[in-house]
Amino acid sequence: MTEDEARLAVALGIPAYGCDPALNDLGTKVGSRRIFAEEGVPHPAGLEVDGRADLPGALAELRRRRPSLHGAVLKLDQGVSGLGNAIVDVRSAHENVEQAISLEDPDTTLARYLDELDAQGGIVEERIEGDDLRSPSVQLRLSPAGQVEILSTHDQVLGGPHGQTFFGSHFPADPGYAQLIAAEALKVGRRLARAGAIGRASVDFVATREDGRWVPYALEINLRSGGTTHSMMALTALTDGDYDPLSGEYRTRLGDIKHYAATDHLDSSAYETLTPDDLLDIVTERSLGWDAATESGVVLHMVSALAVAGRIGLTAIADDLDCARALYYEVKSALDHAAALDPAPGPARI
Questions:
Q1: Contact (Cβ atoms closer than 8 angstroms) between residue 343 and residue 333
Q2: What is the pTM of this model?
Q3: Any long-range contacts for 89-92 (C-beta under 8 Å, 24+ apart)?
Q4: What is the pLDDT of residues 329-343, one digit of tens each?
């Protein structure tokens, strides 16, 4: 919520389903770490930084706390979608901090980034690493009456130069840690509700295996709809089902368990030669669209961005994750073929 939206709601005399702008600090990187500490939610070791001048001292303290640390993550206080993040090589930072910083956003410069750090502050924290590393999240709904509801868990699909940028998600999160992150997110949700927050929120985590068990670390709070909101709303609207936070499963009104793979980033410059009508024809011809009888198929969004930016979004819904991902790749293959694009080799994005 912005101040303008709050003033408009007051002027019209209607309630706004969102947090009072006075609470927005609770959803910043600094505010998130403070809530995690207050509520006993596990989170990476780190410190607040007021600007670039604080960075050398903060990194030195982080090295003292974690002597074996190789990498740290520097985050702008109000960064979104991971684009406000940067990776810091802790081993070389004591020689030249600025040369040790690698930005996640390819469209900015180090000078602009450090100016933003001076303007809004941020945090620097240890980079959690491991052979089996996941990036799950929990979606919450906070009612005006103070009730907290777990809406979903997701495994986020991250990309970008350093794996910090949100590209999509798988639903639901791995059952190995879905209940663990839901329990920690519930602590956060109750803290937000006590402060008067309402509407949608989410908590991002990183989960890694330690001594054979999953251990989650909370990374940040989002006091808004996020990248996993619209895909879950699409599933709910189409199937009229419910998510069970105890089992970590979503069941339709017919009793079927559903999974999906979703993205906002199915893109290529070659797709700019296609129109929205081309896309709809492709999906129809290959029978990839939504099938109400099986409650499976592909749901498109951002269709108008195809010819402008060569990008679309989609949610591929099926009875298991493998089938959902297969639907995604059928759409990608069809677009590649229509755009005369050779499918690029390499690891799967979604």
A1: yes
A2: 0.92
A3: 90/59, 90/62, 90/63
A4: 999 999 999 998 766
Give burial (CB, 10 Å; 0-12/13-18/19+) of 206: buried
How far apart CA 307 and CA 310 sit, in angstroms, is: 6
Residue count of the chain: 350
- Enter the DSSP assignment of 290: -
Amino acid at the residue 147: Q
Q: 199 Cβ partners below 8 Å, 6+ apart?
A: 1, 17, 18, 19, 141, 142, 223, 224
List of residues 6+ apart from 165 with CB closer than 8 A: 81, 82, 83, 104, 158, 159
Q: How far is CA 11 from CA 23, 24, 199, in A?
A: 20, 21, 20
The helix (run of H) or strand (run of E) holding residue 233 is: helix 229-239
Closest C-alpha among 191, 202, 103 to residue 150: 202
Please state, in angstroms and rounded to a whole number, the distance separating the CA atoms of residues 264 and 41: 30
Q: Report angle CA 268, 272, 273 to the nearest 5 degrees.
A: 120
Could you tell me if 206 and 163 are in contact, meaning their C-beta atoms sit under 8 angstroms apart?
no
The answer to whether the CB of 171 falls within 8 A of the CB of 243 is: no
* Residue with tokens 């670390």, as numbered in its chain: 217
* Cα Rg of the chain (Å, integer): 21
* CA atoms of 179 and 184, how far apart (whole Å): 9
Q: Whole-angstrom distance between the N-terminal and C-terminal Cα of the chain?
A: 30
* Tokens 């105890």, residue located: 246
CA dist., res. 201 & res. 188, Å (int): 10
Q: What is the pLDDT of residues 69-92, one digit of tens each?
A: 989 999 999 988 888 999 999 988
